[in-house]
Amino acid sequence: MIDPSERRGKFWSVVRVSSGNFLEMYDFMVFGYYASAIGKAFFPSGSAFLSLMLSLMTFGAGFLMRPFGALVLGAYTDRKGRRAGLLLTLGLMSVGIFSIACMPGYATIGLLAPLLVVIGRLLQGFSAGMELGGVSVYLSEIASPGHKGFYVSWQSGSQQIAVMVAASVGVALNSMLPPEKMEQLLKRQNGNSRSRRGGNKLKQTQLPLEIVSKGRFDKSEPTIHKGEDLDVPTYIRRGVALN
User: Fold this and answer.
1) Which H or E run includes 56?
2) Which residue segment(s) compose the domain that 145 sits in?
3) Is 217 helix (H, G, I), strand (E, B) or coil?
4) Is 85's pLDDT higher than 60?
5) How many CA atoms lie within 13 Å of 145's alpha carbon, on the beta-carbon side?
6) pLDDT at position 218 over 80
7) Who's near 64: CB < 8 A, 6+ residues apart?
């Protein structure tokens, strides 16, 4: 018979492990629900289909890393303990998801963007490889006699709930936001730094519309002779002619 304090301890252990398992699977699966917008932001090409396929290939690359993660992190967990192994797994998944979420798009840093996104996705897959076995073994170890199946079932249950929540978030966002707005949100900083760098230069060198439409400079302004020290944008903005 388990005393109440021990029962509460086991309950909160299951809650903590299941919560971490939920977050890890959510982070791993949510990529797939936004593959189309991610493809346009990080894998632009002349074909929307090709961008989508490159994004889905990156999504699938995470699954290729899961066996390697299971072997390496599984051995680490045996040496350092279940707690240390699960914490490392969650840490690696966090690094992978943040590297993708905070990555500037292709328009900002070029080929470095898709390369780093692929690396982040591989790191996610490497981390997820140990989650299934590690959580299952941990729950089995803390289970009370005769309840191992019930305890271990929280591993699969929390993962499936994470998949459904990720899908629900994707459906909700796509229903509330138009596709164009969704792409802008996922692109984040695409082109922002380029616009800031080129904005002032464009304003300084672009002729006023009224001058271009007239095809001449306003002769009412004083004439500036060649060689005179005057800021170029100033006389262009004033519409002064050069002699």
Assistant:
1) helix 48-80
2) 4-187
3) coil
4) yes
5) 2
6) no
7) 125
Going from the C-alpha of 118 to that of each of 29, 93, 110, 226, the distances in angstroms are 15, 14, 14, 56
Q: Do residues 12 and 104 both lie within one domain?
A: yes
- Which value, to the nearest 10 degrees, does the dihedral of the CA atoms of residues 108, 112, 118, 119 take? -120
114-124 average pLDDT score: 94
Classified as helix, coil or strand, 224 is: strand
Query: Is pLDDT at 188 greater than 60 in this prediction?
Result: no
Distance CA 92, CA 24 (A): 10
d(CA 184, CA 34): 12
User: Is the same domain home to 44 and 155?
Assistant: yes
Contact criterion met (CB below 8 Å) for 19 and 2: no
Q: Which of residues 165, 187, 209 is at a domain's end?
A: 187
143: left (phi over 0), alpha (psi -120 to 50) or beta: beta
Mean pLDDT of 180-192: 60
